[in-house]
Specification:
With about 350 residues, the chain is α/β, with parallel strands linked by helices. About 40% of the residues lie in helices and about 20% in strands.
């Protein structure tokens, strides 16, 4: 008998979960067990979901644990070899799950893999959050196959083949449970944003690999849970990127990287002001202050991460700067930076 894959859906009052569940039960070509981790205090939406899909298992949090906390609570209950962390604002497509399972089964070193993520709003273009899988540059800025900074590419099949990645997007993240337990799941300090990149970085430090599986396609409604222009989203993006780099970089890298990143955070604030993005303008500076005030907590996480690391991450790393390539060279296509 084929072992089912656990599908873990963190949920906070988003009505689109009904569409997500409908697509799961319609298009999954592999046995599944759906676990919804509800942060919304058992509201009417989750009640409707249970009524329409009585086979789902619901775990209700007493308080809002955020994306990372809810994912971890769901992962802790998994009793199968594989699981998928799936946003409630996604829709899966026909035969989406089998290619992911087959990829993991074919290579025991693959700890996580990602389907091709397309925009649920503009289906001809890649999703902002994950595209066809993620990379990182030498300064710690992330991008993905199909998206550099705010520019999303049209999907014309240019990334329709498997390859190793630096990170896989948490919107639809297929994970090998044994490997996920080895790195103690997601870091709850992140709350939301960049937690999956930190997770994949730590998996690579254990010798595992992250893989792109574009034969599987999922649609994602980016920024549904938190508007892209909000202060909180911008703050979390800047803060969590800094935490991630501080945790996972070696000491030599940090000596030259941190001064550059502090300068770039200040320049980011100026950039937001120039573009009249008032709600985001103070977020980079606030993220720097937060990191300084919480340096002891961050250092403890770094110490633990460094003590457990066995290997240096090697896949999906761009040796240059995407900021330089984007703003000064006008590069808009990832294939021009990372030859496929």
């Amino acid at each position: 008998m084929t072992e089912p894959v656990n599908i873990i859906i963190p949920h906070y009052r988003a009505p689109v979960i009904i569409d997500c569940l409908e697509s799961l039960y319609r298009f999954s070509n592999w046995p599944i067990k759906v676990i919804v981790v509800d942060d919304g205090n058992n509201g009417p939406i989750i009640q409707k979901a249970v009524l329409n899909f009585p086979q789902i298992k619901v775990i209700s949090n007493e308080q809002n644990l955020g994306f990372t906390g809810s994912c971890n609570r769901g992962l802790a209950t998994v009793d199968s070899k594989y699981a998928v962390l799936l946003n409630d604002d996604t829709r899966v497509t026909k035969d989406w799950l089998r290619p992911l399972v087959e990829c993991a089964e074919a290579n025991s070193s693959v700890a996580a893999c990602q389907p091709k993520l397309l925009s649920a709003i503009d289906s001809s273009h890649f999703d902002y959050g994950g595209g066809a899988g993620g990379y990182i540059d030498k300064l710690g800025y992330t991008f993905c196959r199909g998206r550099i900074l705010n520019h999303r590419e049209e999907d014309i099949g240019q990334y329709d083949f498997q390859r190793p990645l630096f990170w896989a997007c948490g919107s639809a993240l297929f994970v090998r449970i044994e490997a996920a337990r080895e790195v103690n799941f997601l870091d709850t300090e992140f709350y939301m944003h960049f937690e999956e990149i930190d997770f994949c970085w730590r998996l690579q430090s254990k010798g595992y690999r992250i893989w792109s599986v574009p034969e599987s396609v999922v649609y994602h409604h980016s920024a549904y849970s938190l508007p892209s222009a909000s202060f909180r989203k911008t703050f979390l993006n800047h803060r969590n990127n800094l935490i991630m780099n501080f945790k996972n970089r070696n000491v030599i890298e940090l000596y030259w990287l941190l001064p550059i990143r502090i300068l770039l955070e200040l320049l980011a604030s100026i950039g937001y002001l120039i573009n009249k993005q008032w709600s985001s303008a103070m977020a980079p500076i606030a993220s720097l202050f937060w990191c300084m005030l919480n340096i002891n907590s961050i250092y403890k996480r770094r110490k633990k991460t460094q003590s457990e690391a066995k290997f240096k991450a090697r896949d999906g790393i761009y040796s240059g700067s995407i900021l330089y390539q984007y703003y000064l060279r006008g590069c808009r296509q990832v294939k021009n930076l990372m030859p496929e």
